[in-house]
Amino acid sequence: MSDLNKLDRDTIDFLTSRRSTVARMMDGPGPNEDDLRKIMEAGMRVPDHGRLTPWRFIVIRGDAREQLGDVIADAFKKNKPDAIEEEVEIEQERLTRAPVVIAVVSRVRR
Fold this sequence. Notes:
By secondary structure, the chain is α+β, with helices and mostly antiparallel strands. The protein starts with 5 loop residues before the first helix and ends with a strand. The relative contact order is 0.17. The protein has helices at residues 6-17, 33-43, 63-79, 85-93; strands spanning 55-61, 100-106. The chain is extended. It has four helices and two strands; from the N terminus they run ααβααβ.
């Protein structure tokens, strides 16, 4: 008999059967405040071999996703001036594909 208890088996079953959703197929409303808190609490528990903590979570929703998309598109054009318009549009719309985006920000120190 396996050494895995029911919780362990349920967790492994979940992890081995989950499927990623194509971002453009995501729809609102997205996670609520309690769900976001749980997601970020789980994110704080990930291994940190690079010792990047403390990190910050920034929740981006609504019009802020489009505004940040404009900033990303401008930076993309500066870094790749020969980019075709379709490439720029992909970068500009990147954050609008999901109803909520969580950015994880850290500072690397020597």
